[in-house]
Amino acid sequence: MKISNVGSSKPTQKGQKKGSVGKSSEFSSHLGRTSSASSSHVELSEVNPVASMDSILSIQEVGDATEEDNRRALYQRGEDILDRLAEIQREILSGAISVDRLQNLAQMLRNRRQSVDDPQLQQIIDEIELRAEVEIAKWGRAKK
């Protein structure tokens, strides 16, 4: 959002002179005491300008690298599980299901997964894993 016209909401009044300053000697007497109290003059060095707001905001937008890696790994895990479920589905439809595929899928589900702060991605992965566990349970029940 860009603010272009910054100024007073009151219209400016031209040609009107300000009233008298008042007791100017009171303020100037404080200045005189301050300057006479410090006998040495201190030179001020140049002050660096404050960083622009854009640079501050851009730094805040940069995500945590480990969080992005966890997110990518979790996404890849979901893709792998879905691929294995698709293979199992094809085998079920053809009538010859591979026990090795089911055991590999079960092992993959037992492996610890990374957590991520994205609740939607976490929910999707949970649903994929639940579906895979259901398929394994169905196979185990049909086997008995």
Can you tell me about this structure?
Keywords: Cell projection, Cilium, Flagellum. The chain is mainly α. It contains five helices and no strands. Helix 3 runs parallel beside helix 5. The longest helix is centred in the middle third of the chain and has 30 residues. The protein is rod-shaped, with a radius of gyration of 36 Å. The relative contact order is 0.08. The model has no long low-confidence stretch (mean pLDDT 71).
Summarize the structure.
Pfam families: FliX. The chain is mainly α and 144 residues long.
Let me know the largest β-sheet: none
Number of helices: 5
H-E string: HHHHH
Shape: rod-shaped
Low-pLDDT segments: none
What is the rounded distance between the termini? 66 Å
The secondary-structure class comes to mainly alpha
Radius of gyration: 36 Å
Helical content stands at 55-70%
* Mean model confidence by pLDDT: 71
Number of strands: 0
* Proportion of strand residues: under 5%
Biased composition (Polar residues): 1-12
InterPro entries: Flagellar_assmbl_FliX_class2
Keywords: Cell projection, Cilium, Flagellum
Protein name: Flagellar assembly protein FliX
Overview features:
Flagellar assembly protein FliX; single chain; Flagellar_assmbl_FliX_class2; 0% strand; cell projection; cilium; flagellum; 144 residues
Topology overview:
Blueprint (H helix, E strand, L loop, with lengths): L23 H14 L15 H9 L3 H30 L4 H12 L8 H25 L1
Helix pairs in contact: 3-4, 3-5, 4-5
InterPro entries: Flagellar_assmbl_FliX_class2
Protein name: Flagellar assembly protein FliX
GO biological process, one term: bacterial-type flagellum organization
